[in-house]
Amino acid sequence: MNIKDLNIGIKYATLKLKIVKDLGSETFIGRYGKPRSVHRFLVADETGTIELKIWDRPNIAFNKGDIIIVEKAFVTSYRGKLILNVGKLGRIRKAVEP
């Protein structure tokens, strides 16, 4: 699957992406009083770019230029922009370089 193929409501997407920019992270108290964290990145493939949100993994560390594999991601929308999310069921890892 590529970024151009993503639509709102897609679940279980698997993509190979490149980190373009680290957009920062934040920690907050969720609606049930539980601490939550989200780290945001701008990512790209050969078909476009999209914001990636990685939920509740505060120690995640990727650098600009890293190639990553995202599995079981889901797509939402915020203010008309598609957002790719990696939640509790999702996986994210650095791609193995040949």
Précis, in short:
With 98 residues, the chain is mainly β. The chain is built from no helices and 6 strands. Strands 1-2-3-5-4 form a 5-stranded mixed β-barrel.
Describe this structure as you would to a colleague:
This protein has strands at residues 13-29, 35-45, 48-55, 67-78, 81-86, 91-94. By secondary structure, the protein is mainly beta. The chain is built from no helices and six strands. β4 (67-78) and β5 form a beta hairpin. Strands 1-2-3-5-4 form a five-stranded mixed barrel. The protein is globular, with a radius of gyration of 13 Å.
**Helix share bin:** under 10%
Mean pLDDT: 95
Assembly annotation = single chain
Element pattern in H and E: EEEEEE
> Class by helix and strand content?
mainly beta
How many individual helices? 0
Portion in beta strands: over 45%
Distance between the termini: 21 Å
Ranges where pLDDT stays below 50 over 5 or more residues in a row are none
Q: Choose one word for the global shape.
A: globular
Radius of gyration: 13 Å
- The strands making up the biggest β-sheet line up spatially as 1-2-3-5-4
Number of DSSP strand runs:
6
